[in-house]
Design goal:
Distance between the termini: 65 Å
Number of strands: 0
Number of domains: 1
CATH class: Mainly Alpha
Shape: flat
Helix content: over 70%
Radius of gyration: 22 Å
Structural class: mainly alpha
Length: about 240
């Protein structure tokens, strides 16, 4: 009996609808987690590169140069397989035999986050350099503390100037989650590969995966665009 398209991608006993939805959820969770980790690292990296201390600037430069220059899939391999080997050796030295594999989701998020952070570093640094120094001086002359100055002037405007670049980085992070299929994470692409192999319908399931990635990218891109306009509203008057 030949199953139709709706049977294959539906939610019936032989449909792949629910596994694909679950895999899409894992994709979104990995992308958001990696992007948020990258945001933390990006802010820290930007602070290093903007520091007056040569050693701190060199550390920031090393971070961005290395992790923007190595292919993402190679970083994922290094973190997952290299990390698993190192962790296994530590556990074996502790008296626990066998091989210990690191969690694919955790390592995937870590790898994506570190790479994303290297790119976000440049976005935040460029956004900070666009700030009107007159506003900072005015805030200091009004007696603002460093924390208040950061919260009221520096952070909102840096985010505002950085958001277009951050939107592009987010789209890259979303697509990079597909690389996590190589370490066994059942995200959208890997689930599509499994479904395509089981049903011998590669065009259908790869097409579905492409459509889901496109929809997620468009929806989140629209959300970031609205956020950008909202942040720009106070300065557009």
């Amino acid at each position: 009996m030949t199953l139709g398209i709706y049977d294959l991608v539906g939610f019936g006993p032989q449909g792949w609808g629910m596994p694909l939805i679950n895999a899409a959820g894992i994709t979104i969770a990995a992308a958001i987690s990696g992007f948020l980790l990258g945001s933390v690292l990006g802010v820290g990296g930007a602070a290093l590169k903007l520091s007056r201390q040569p050693m701190l600037r060199a550390a920031g430069m090393f971070y961005t140069t290395v992790f923007r220059g190595i292919p993402e899939i190679l970083i994922i391999y290094l973190f997952y397989f290299g990390g698993s080997v190192a962790f296994t050796k530590i556990m074996n030295l502790s008296g626990l035999p066998g091989f210990f594999s690191l969690p694919a989701f955790f390592i995937g998020v870590l790898a994506i986050g570190i790479v994303s952070g290297a790119y976000q570093t440049e976005a935040y640094r460029a956004g900070f350099l666009r700030l009107d120094r007159g506003q900072i001086e005015a805030g200091l002359s009004c007696g603002m503390s460093d924390v208040l100055l950061l919260r009221r002037i520096i952070a909102p405007q840096t985010l505002r100037f950085s958001l277009p670049a951050l939107g592009n980085i987010w789209q890259s992070v979303l697509k990079e989650t597909a690389l996590l299929s190589v370490i066994g994470l059942t995200e959208l692409l890997r689930q599509s590969i499994t479904a395509a192999g089981s049903t011998r319908e590669p065009l259908l399931f790869y097409g579905v995966a492409a459509a889901v990635f496109f929809i997620i990218g468009r929806l989140t891109g629209s959300l970031l665009s609205r956020t950008e306009k909202r942040l720009a509203r106070p300065w557009s008057r």
